[in-house]
Amino acid sequence: MRVTFATEAAPGRPNEDFVAATPDAAVLLDGAGTPPGSDSGCSHGVAWYSRTLGSTLIASISQAASSLPELLAEAIKTVSSLHDNTCDLNHPGSPSATVIMLRRRNELIEWLVLADSVLVLDVIGTPDPVVICDDREAQVGARYRAEMDALDSGSDAHVSAHRRYVETLRSYRNRDGGFWVAATDPLAADQALTGSMPADRVRAAALLSDGASRLVDRFHLATWREALDTLDQHGPANLISQVRTAEHSDPHGERWPRGKTFDDATAAHVSFTSSE
Ligand SMILES: [Zn+2]
Q1: Residues 204, 274: Cα–Cα separation, whole Å
Q2: Dihedral, 14, 144, 210, 123 alpha carbons, nearest 10
Q3: CA 250, CA 204: separation in Å to the nearest integer?
Q4: CA–CA distance from 217 to each of 33, 156, 208 (Å)?
Q5: Ligand 1 center to residue 174 CA distance, Å?
Q6: 42, 59, 118, 247 — which has fewest CB within 10 A?
Q7: In this structure, how many other beta carbons lie within 10 angstroms of the beta carbon of residue 10?
Q8: CA distance 266 to 30
Q9: Ligand 1 centroid, distance to 34 Cα (angstroms)
Q10: First vs last Cα of the chain: how many Å apart?
């Protein structure tokens, strides 16, 4: 297994994404931002949350006896225990993160996807990649984003509308009929999308935060196949640079309305072919 990855913060902000790999596993998380002017009840912040949860996951993922949801539930509990004395973990805006876990175990590729980061699998004998994304937040969000999307994304009014949007969505977080993310409730792990496939059927996998997947699923400037090919032939940094070029070409969100003009972008490419 060969892993390459790149991550780049949105300009002028701390990077709230996290990516890490071992010889037989990879994890990618995208911390859910607390917009300016919004409370979270946590003094550590979103970047701390995604890095701490991510490093806990990568430390435990090779414990083969546990399933990926079990490992995620344990990691959520571990991170909560690190700040439940100092922070208000019942706050609706407490830091949260999307999670992708991928590991090779017993000749199987196993995965877990929670919230809107995207896992793309290049399956041998299948022309179109298999795309695994949990779109429950997008489905809820579609009801509330019209006001934000109508505004110039460089404007103060857009910043306010984005904050209201994020705060409205909080009431749907980690409950039935809403959407699920890693935050303080370990039961979220049971809501993740999971699966497995024989390792000899998978040529490669891509793990993408939504700041990187937007090249395909929001900007429509590449297909998933083209994104896989870019990752394989030119590397993850090249894909992220294509995202930045597109974002700079549309600084006010007129062509592609979006909550964040620029977003943290992370891409990992995992090659399972043994010819390396
Ligand atoms: Zn905290």
Answers
A1: 11
A2: 160
A3: 32
A4: 20, 26, 11
A5: 18
A6: 59
A7: 19
A8: 8
A9: 13
A10: 9
Of 108, 56, 117, give the one whose Cα is nearest residue 82: 56
Greater confidence (143 vs 203) lies with: 203
What spacing in Å lies between the alpha carbon of 95 and ligand 1's midpoint? Answer: 8
pTM given for the model: 0.93
For residue 39, how far is its CA from the centre of ligand 1 (angstroms)? Answer: 12
CA of 78 to the centre of ligand 1 (A): 12
Give every CB contact of residue 275 below 8 A, 6+ residues apart in sequence.
Answer: none
Cβ count near 249 (within 10 Å): 11
Residues around ion ligand 1, judged by CB within 5 A, are 42, 44, 83, 87
CA of 79 to the centre of ligand 1 (A): 9
Per residue in 52-67, pLDDT tens?
999 999 999 987 789 9
